[in-house]
Amino acid sequence: MYVVAFSIAYALIRIQARKGEIALDSDQSLNLVLYCVIGLILGARLFSVLFYDGSLYYWTHPWMIFWPFRGGQFIGLPGMSYHGGLVGGILGGYLYSRKYKYSFMDIADTVCYAVPLGYTFGRLGNFINGELFGRVSTKPWAIVFPHAPSFSTNYAWVREIADSVGLAYQKGELINLPRHPSQLYEALFEGILLFLFLWFVIRPRRKKMPSGFGLVWYMAGYGVLRFFIEYFRSPDENLGYMIALGRQSDNISIFQSFFNFSLGQLFCIAMIVAAVIFAVILKRHEGVKHD
């Protein structure tokens, strides 16, 4: 799915180049994708192990961060943070622009218009793997993920949900409850809908906006959508809520309050704030140029 995502991003960059929106030939487009992909992988992995791991293992064993073996078995690089990938991808695009003498703002806009649709396939990959699943739910479309943690039926809330969805159980046994397919929510909203908005609404106005506004709209749009989808997504068990202001915050497996915030939501808030600040800076810079 990553290969599909990167291929789609490359194809959409080529479409923009052929339409004269940016001066990139096929080799330059491929190099841009490679710079961003390398930055994305490095940033996603570093954020994942340093912020989401919940232990000090990688802080004390930094040489293991990119080591794909554990216990004599190949495990790849489990755990990739979107927000870390965003930072790494931006850095990769910046380094590309410096080396090949392009405007970083133009590069950033071009990549941001191309990224969301590819992101859709990354989330479909998460769904196929049964990872990054959502909170427990009784909705008709909720799904039982085979590798999700099971719950003891000694708890009243577990029995109540099992009864409401018609799951048979013996009191005291462990049972796997249905959950929100939050990966599909993200694929739809953060992928397809955000792509359609950026590609067909924002991109046609590219020449009328200051360079860099594609990045602004991408960061703000993704930040808002992901912030709300996080309410359906199960927080990392080793982290729980970073800020718990709701009346109930003892059970991260079910939704309890809009005022309990995960680490992902805090990163989303940072994205939105950064987008607003960046927009103000671009507008002021445009005003100075016109003066």
User: Which outline best applies?
Assistant: globular
Span of the ends, CA to CA: 48 Å
Radius of gyration computed on alpha carbons: 21 Å
Integer tally of domains: 1
Number of strands: 6
Helix/strand-derived category reads mainly alpha
Q: What portion of residues belong to β-strands?
A: under 5%
Number of helices: 9
N-to-C SSE series? HHHEEHHEHEHHEEH
**Please, what is the average pLDDT?**
92
Strands ordered across the widest β-sheet: 1-2
Low-confidence stretches: none
Q: Main β-sheet, in a few words?
A: 2 strands, antiparallel
- Share of helix among residues? 55-70%
Task: Summarize the SSE layout with pairings.
Blueprint: H1 2-18, H2 26-52, H3 57-60, E1 69-70, E2 73-74, H4 82-100, H5 104-129, E3 151-152, H6 156-165, E4 174-175, H7 182-202, H8 213-229, E5 243-244, E6 260-261, H9 263-290
Antiparallel strand pairs: 1-2, 3-4, 5-6
Helix pairs in contact: 1-2, 1-5, 2-4, 4-5, 5-7, 5-8, 7-8, 8-9
